[in-house]
Amino acid sequence: MSNFAVYRVADKQAKTLNRFNIFLSINTVTMAAKSLARFVVSRISTPISNKGFVNNPNVKFYSVQKNFEFIKTHKTGARNNVGVITLNRPKALNALCNGLMQEVADALDVFEKDKEIGAIIITGSEKAFAAGADIKEMQNNTYSQCVSGNFLAHWNRVSESVKPVIAAVNGYALGGGCELAMMCDIIYAGENAKFGQPEILIGTIPGAGGTQRLTRVVGKSKAMEMVLTGDQVPAHEAEKMGLVSKVFPVDKLMEEAVKLGEKIAKNSHLVNGMCKESVNTAYETTLREGLHFEKRMFHGTFATKDRKEGMTAFVEKRAPNFTNE
Predict the structure, then answer these.
(1) Biggest CA-to-CA distance, the chain
(2) Which of 25, 92, 125, 138 is most solvent-facing, going by the fewest CB within 10 Å?
(3) Contact at 8 Å (CB) between 163 and 272?
(4) Is 175 considered catalytic here?
(5) 52-103: per-residue pLDDT in tens?
(6) Structure confidence at residue 35 (pLDDT)
(7) Dihedral of CA 42/46/50/51: which sign?
(8) Helix-strand-coil percent breakdown of the chain, rounded to 5?
(9) What is the pTM of this model?
(10) Which position among 118, 132, 171, 176 bears the catalytic label?
């Protein structure tokens, strides 16, 4: 091949590589821009009214809505800045029916519009966080019904929350319950908690993240063992696997979850959301693109008042006064 031909081939390859790098850069910047836009839009809202405060001045929470059938909601913490969603189907061990998951989504909408709320907790009872999906509800579903109705699609709402979500798990977190916990950003567990994906035992497979999120958290081998045997994993073993962040005595679980929520809520809510988005992006992209996305989000914090306030407060050796702007 002549020198001229070699030059032409090299030039063509260089141009192709350059176009690929430009594509990566534009794609990542676009992702960052969309994320920033979602944060801004989420802040343009009307907070929850102050109606519903408990009369006892020593009780630091109030009911958010009273018309839910399958859940209970309230605000808690010294500054009422932590929202709590409690699954409430005790007779069914908090089995996840469509109605319950829709109410969870509605409650998240309310908490996300409340400018006071900086973190959200999802919990159940001491006996069961959620013992699984409602099998009776789906028993007679057909394939065509599942596909045409996009069955379980709205369950992903929890994972799409802009604000940090903490799962406080006591008792059973099986099947859909384990999947719901994994949709949250942090899992705290009581010592009696048990996690598992037992769908294989009733002739089906996980359908809300059990084969996907679980594999990313605990690795292929452990995930395969869990989904192919249906075995339950106790809290301390789940902690060793990385599925659970911390384990506490049963009666201390909610207290510790609220403390965590309050600590998170003290930060800039805007920057909390940006940080959460960046961590979650690590699951969706290559390392190279993820690092570029992180840099752009980091650069984006320099467009916020809270970044300026945080660094100024650090230099002046005082506590920051974040305004979530």
Answers:
(1) 89
(2) 25
(3) yes
(4) no
(5) 333 434 434 445 555 899 999 999 999 999 999 999 999 999 999 999 999 9
(6) 52
(7) negative
(8) 55, 15, 35
(9) 0.79
(10) 176
